[in-house]
């Protein structure tokens, strides 16, 4: 279940984690807050950088009752450091995916 209130908007709102990096590992399913995210992808939103659902997905989530997705979120309280290997596999188009 997304929420129990009948008028809730299930998609997460735009926000900034001011004191933690946010890492998401998308395990399986249809990810309601992101477009073009597939099983096995990892996203990183560094502390202080605004992020939230892709355009249109908050509105699309209205009336949705549940999801069939599985993702693991980790909020770190020390900055993550990217390795060279991570940079080599970066999906360079992801950062601009909100501009569609």
Tell me what you see in this structure.
There is one protein chain. With 100 residues, this protein is α+β, with helices and mostly antiparallel strands. The protein has one domain (1-77): Jelly Rolls (Sandwich), CATH 2.60.120.10. Helix content is 10%, strand content 19%. The chain contains 2 helices and 3 strands. The chain has helices at 57-61, 84-88; strands at residues 21-28, 42-45, 70-76. It has a 3-stranded antiparallel sheet, with no helix packed on it. The longest helix has 5 residues, at 57-61. The chain is globular, with a radius of gyration of 14 Å.
Short key terms for the protein model shown above:
single chain; 100 residues; alpha+beta; Jelly Rolls; 19% strand
Distance, first to last CA = 29 Å
Q: How do the strands line up in the largest sheet?
A: 2-1-3
Low-confidence stretches: none
* Helix-residue proportion: 10-25%
| Protein structure class | alpha+beta
Can you name the CATH architecture?
Sandwich
Number of domains: 1
Number of helices: 2
The arrangement of helices and strands along the chain is EEHEH
Q: Strand tally, please?
A: 3
Strand content: 15-25%
What is the CATH C-level name?
A: Mainly Beta
Summarize the main sheet: 3 strands, antiparallel
Mean of residue pLDDT values: 84
CATH superfamily: Jelly Rolls
CATH-defined fold name = Jelly Rolls
Q: Give the overall silhouette.
A: globular
């Amino acid at each position: 279940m997304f929420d129990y209130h009948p008028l809730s908007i299930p998609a997460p709102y735009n926000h900034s984690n001011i004191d933690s990096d946010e890492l998401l590992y998308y395990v399986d399913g249809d990810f309601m807050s992101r477009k073009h995210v597939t099983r096995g992808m990892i996203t990183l939103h560094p502390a202080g950088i605004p992020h939230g659902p892709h355009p249109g997905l908050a509105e699309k989530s209205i009336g949705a009752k549940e999801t069939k997705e599985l993702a693991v979120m980790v909020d770190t309280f020390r900055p993550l450091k990217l390795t060279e290997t991570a940079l080599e596999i970066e999906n360079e188009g992801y950062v601009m995916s909100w501009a569609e």
